[in-house]
Design a protein that fits this description.
With about 150 residues, the protein is mostly helical. Helix content is about 70%, strand content about 0%. It is built from seven helices and no strands. Helix 1 (about 10-35) runs antiparallel to helix 6 (about 100-130).
């Protein structure tokens, strides 16, 4: 299907994009304003935090690809995995515990990046009626600001 054949979403589609984006941005802001769950000396015990971190790790594969227009495949996930392993080894070596602030900071940055990028993409897609996949909204806006016409991405 050619990029120009995508239809703009209707009111329901735009509304769903806006609600999803605002929810993700609210999570981004809440995490940014209170990062203590991830920066304490003991691992978070809330299953919701771990599920959120796992989901952000999962979505890390597609967010940079479509959001920046480059195909990185699983490299972002591999880099986060290697950095997590290094953080765990560091914490084990210096505190005797697998959890430490280096791993917490890494997970915090992961969550902030994914929720911020996805949230902004969904809000822009809803506001602009971006056809195609929501992750194309940021490159579309950047392209328009630079004076280039950009096509919708599937």
């Amino acid at each position: 299907m050619a990029a120009s054949t995508f239809e703009q979403p209707g009111r329901l589609g735009r509304g769903v994009r806006l609600v999803a984006g605002m929810t993700l941005l609210a999570l981004f802001i809440e995490t940014l304003l209170d990062p203590t769950d991830w920066l304490r000396e003991t691992a978070p015990t809330s299953p919701g935090l771990w599920i959120g971190a796992a989901m952000c790790f999962y979505f890390l594969r597609g967010v940079p690809d479509k959001g920046f227009g480059r195909s990185w495949g699983r490299w972002p996930q591999l880099m986060v995995g290697v950095l997590a392993l290094v953080a765990i080894v560091y914490s084990l070596a210096f505190s005797g515990n697998w959890w430490g602030q280096p791993l917490g900071a890494l997970l915090l940055v992961l969550i902030l990046y994914v929720t911020g990028h996805l949230g902004l993409s969904f809000v822009l897609a809803g506001m602009l009626g971006q056809p195609g996949w929501e992750m194309g909204a940021i490159p579309h806006v950047v392209g328009r600001l630079k004076g280039r016409d950009t096509a919708a991405q599937p």
